[in-house]
Amino acid sequence: MNANQLSGKSVLMVEDEYLIADALCSAFEMEDVHVVGPFPNVASAMKALDKGVHADIAVLDVNLNGERVFPLADRLMADNVPIILTTGYDSDAIPRDYAHLQRLQKPLHLHELLGCLNGILNTVKK
What is the CATH classification number for the domain harbouring 89? Predict the structure, then answer.
């Protein structure tokens, strides 16, 4: 993995499963990626954004203990923040308005997630 592409970037993580969030945080730290969060629900992530928290990219679990992440995705899309959705659902469960977003199937494979992040960051010109 080319750590230089990820190094110094910030990732907004919204994940309600502690063990997944902890493992992702550790992996991101090894790539010198700053983790914003992890947030277990939409409200806490929205509050952070309201306070001016910045993220270069977002990794959002679709289902947060029964709550859908789509209101947060709307806000991030309006702010032009690239999004990776993580989900155990198949693509039919993702509403059409979000079908264009990158989606990774759970259980997550770290190399796939890091590859997705690199790919998105390569296409985003800031």
Answer: 3.40.50.2300
